[in-house]
Design brief:
The protein is built from five helices and no strands. It is an all-alpha fold. 23% of the residues are buried.
Length: 123
C-alpha cells in the first residue's frame, strides 16, 4: 500500500496544480471583467460588475482549494495523522467535482481508509 500512498501524493500534487492554474486563469478573467466596468458602454456596468465579482469569488475558491490540497500533500508526505484526516475530508468534497475530483476522491478514500495505511499514519 505504500506505493498507493506515494501515487496518491503525486495525484494530490497534480490536482493542487490544476486548481492553481484554474484559479490564476479565473483571476485574470476577473481583472479583465473589472476593467470592462470602467470602460463599458452605458447600461452594461452592472453586468460587467456581477461577472467580475463572480469570477473573483470562484477564483479565490479555486486558489483556496489548491492551497488546502498542498497542505494535505505536505502532511501526507511526512506521514502525519492529521494530514490523513484532512485528506479524507477533502476527498469527501472532491467527490462532488465531476469527473476528475470524483475519481481522485474515490481513490483517496480507498487508499487512506485501508487498514495498513491507517497503521502507517498512526503516531
Amino acid at each position: 500500500m505504500t506505493r498507493h500512498v506515494t501515487f496518491l501524493i503525486r495525484l494530490i500534487q497534480l490536482w493542487s496544480g490544476f486548481n492553481l492554474i484554474v484559479g490564476l486563469a479565473l483571476t485574470a478573467f476577473a481583472v479583465a471583467a473589472a476593467t470592462l466596468v470602467v470602460s463599458a458602454p452605458p447600461g452594461t456596468e452592472v453586468a460587467a460588475g456581477v461577472t467580475a465579482a463572480t469570477l473573483a469569488v470562484v477564483a479565490l475558491a479555486a486558489l483556496a482549494w489548491a492551497v488546502a490540497h498542498q497542505v494535505a500533500n505536505r502532511g501526507l508526505r511526512m506521514r502525519k495523522a492529521w494530514a490523513r484526516h484532512f485528506a479524507l475530508m477533502l476527498a469527501a468534497f472532491n467527490l462532488l467535482l465531476l469527473p476528475l475530483g470524483t475519481a481522485l476522491g474515490l481513490y483517496t478514500l480507498w487508499v487512506l481508509l485501508h487498514e495498513n495505511v491507517r497503521v502507517e499514519f498512526h503516531p
